[in-house]
Amino acid sequence: MEIGKSAGTALGMLAGTTLASGIAFLAGMGPTLLTLTVCAGGAAGTAAGYSAAFWLERSHGKLQN
Questions:
Q1: What tens digit of pLDDT does each residue of 13-41 get?
Q2: Of 32, 53, 55, 60, which is most buried, counting CB atoms within 10 Å of its CB?
């Protein structure tokens, strides 16, 4: 299966925001801290997804941009 950097970025953002919102909900955070946590999780997930897609592209050379 071929995925590009844009798909890796999108999937990373989805996973990061979902994980961060679950953690924030379980921790009982207020609205402002919840928003900041979800934003940080989205940014971290985006970076991780892009990095993974870039790494796979370099390793296997099968990804399309």
A1: 999 999 999 999 999 999 999 999 999 99
A2: 53
Distance, CA of 24 to CA of 22 (rounded, Å):
5
DSSP assignment of 6-36 equals: HHHHHHHHHHHHHHHHHHHHHHT--HHHHHH
pTM of the model: 0.79
CA distance 58 to 15: 23
Tokens of 20: 């961060």
* Contact call for residues 42 and 13 (beta carbons, < 8 A): yes
- Whole-angstrom distance, CA of residue 36 vs CA of residue 21: 10
